[in-house]
Design goal:
By secondary structure, the chain is α+β, with helices and mostly antiparallel strands. The protein is built from 14 helices and 9 strands. The longest helix has 80 residues.
């Protein structure tokens, strides 16, 4: 889809590629929460329960985390968005620090071993997939090591606490399974939230551009209104000069030229102040066949053949002429996008058919391509769902497809705003390919939008 907003969004993506979605303030608060919890736990076990373990080394590990927070706070502003590399390094430190504490306090026998999934979950929500996979692999490796070698779990001196090996394997399995589930779940939620935010950003850009166009329309109308009065004066003066000029003289020719140019200016002002619901009369109305020919014209001449047919549904005694409706840019764009998708997927042929009755108009666009995967079929029409073939998809510098998957979403939205119902399905075997069907109630397709009197009409009365 060739939208003007795409370069801006792609530039924004490139700018944010080196940044994570993790703010320093958030990372520090989570780490301080962990520091307080770790310190309270080791102190309670050592002093409250009287269990003996490497208390000094554990305090040193907790202090190292606290000093890291202090250094980061002095080095960066609190609202800084961490780079992907720095955020990955900090989460790596958190995994190793927690693994060291667990190693000194019972390994997988420690009830807090499940906390090792926390850094991976944070990564899934804020970092790219590759970084999350790397951190997940590190956390899984440390969990495996902690199930094999570790200092005994702190316990009463009069007895020894030792769990069966099969139980430790079960704990390890639960940690790995929980890590995988939480990471995938959080990553999916973050991805959907990111896509929705980008879709909203694209919509805001389109709306901003439309507001600018409306502002230009307002300036044009204001300019036309201001020019109407002096142009009216020029017209009146030209008429007076025409009465005084001798017929056939050079002055009469000049006055006639002045009147013709004043008339031309009036026509220009009328075009400038034509309302958005008052299209060019030459192209205001368009038949169904003409609509299909216009939407398919840019895609002819390629290796894919496009066949167009339009006919009334037989039946009934009343005549059924070809429907003629307003030429709406949104309808033309929406149908053109469906034709473009069909041409992209087709192997040799695209069939565009239109049928109409006294009640409805149906436009079907069929291709002979592979069809739409069943898992994608129900989701098409949502933002960022795309199956465009790679031969038509440009790729960015990072090797990822630059297409945003908004084409069908916007086309469907525009067509539905015109009163149509859009359906997408696969062709029935033995045929193969996809079918996009657009259905309008005939009265909706043929209705005329009533245009209010515009400033141009008012200006005409003031000039004449």
């Amino acid at each position: 889809m060739n939208l003007r907003v795409m370069p801006a969004l792609q530039a924004e993506r490139a700018r944010e590629a080196g940044e994570s979605r993790l703010r320093l303030q958030t990372a520090m608060r989570l780490r301080w929460f962990g520091i307080v919890g770790q310190l309270a736990t080791v102190c309670y076990v050592y002093f409250g329960l009287g269990f003996k373990f490497n208390f000094g080394i554990c305090l040193a590990l907790i202090a190292a985390t606290a000093w890291l927070n202090v250094i980061l706070r002095l080095r960066y502003p609190a609202r800084t968005r961490l780079s992907t590399q720095l955020a990955t390094s900090l989460l790596t430190f958190d995994i190793l620090q927690l693994a060291a504490l667990l190693y000194l306090t019972g390994g997988v026998e420690n009830p807090f071993v499940f906390l090792i999934v926390a850094p991976v979950t944070v990564s899934a929500a804020t970092l790219p997939l590759f970084n999350t996979l790397a951190l997940g692999a590190l956390a899984a490796a440390t969990a495996v090591i902690l199930s094999i070698t570790y200092y005994p779990l702190p316990w009463y001196s009069t007895s020894t606490f030792e769990l069966p090996a099969i139980y430790n394997i079960g704990v390890l399995t639960s940690v790995l399974a929980g890590m995988l589930f939480l990471a995938l779940y959080v990553w999916r939620l973050a991805k959907e939230a990111r896509q929705m935010a980008e879709a909203l950003a694209a919509t805001e850009m389109v709306l901003a551009r439309e507001q600018q166009l409306h502002a230009l329309d307002g300036l044009a109308a204001a300019a036309a209104h201001e020019l109407g009065t002096p142009l009216s004066t020029i017209t009146v003066v030209a008429k007076e000069l025409a009465r005084e000029a001798a017929p056939g003289s050079s002055m009469a020719e000049d006055v006639a030229l002045l009147q013709s140019q004043a008339q031309r200016c009036r026509e220009i002002l009328r075009k400038l102040t034509r309302g958005p619901t008052e299209p060019d009369p030459l192209h205001a109305r368009i038949s169904v066949r003409e609509l299909l020919e216009e939407t398919a014209a840019p895609y002819r001449g390629f290796s894919v053949k496009i066949d167009i047919s339009a006919a009334a549904i037989e039946g009934g005694d009343q005549p059924n002429p070809e429907p003629v409706g307003e030429r709406r840019p949104g309808v033309v764009y929406g149908l053109a996008n469906l034709v473009e998708n069909a041409v992209d997927f087709a192997q040799a042929r695209v069939e565009i058919t239109a049928t109409w009755s006294a009640r409805e108009i149906v436009v079907s666009i069929r291709d002979d391509g592979p069809g739409v995967p069943p898992l994608v079929l129900d989701a098409l029409g949502e933002p960022y769902i795309t199956t465009r073939p790679s031969r038509h998809m440009e790729r960015g510098a990072d090797g990822e497809p630059s297409g945003m998957g908004l084409g069908f979403f916007i086309a469907k939205t525009l067509l539905e705003r015109s009163g149509a119902v859009v359906e997408l399905e696969n062709r029935k075997p033995p045929e193969h390919g996809a079918v996009a069907k657009v259905t309008w109630p005939r009265d909706v397709f043929e209705q005329r939008r009533i245009a209010p009197m515009t400033l141009g009409e008012d200006s005409e009365h003031s000039i004449s």
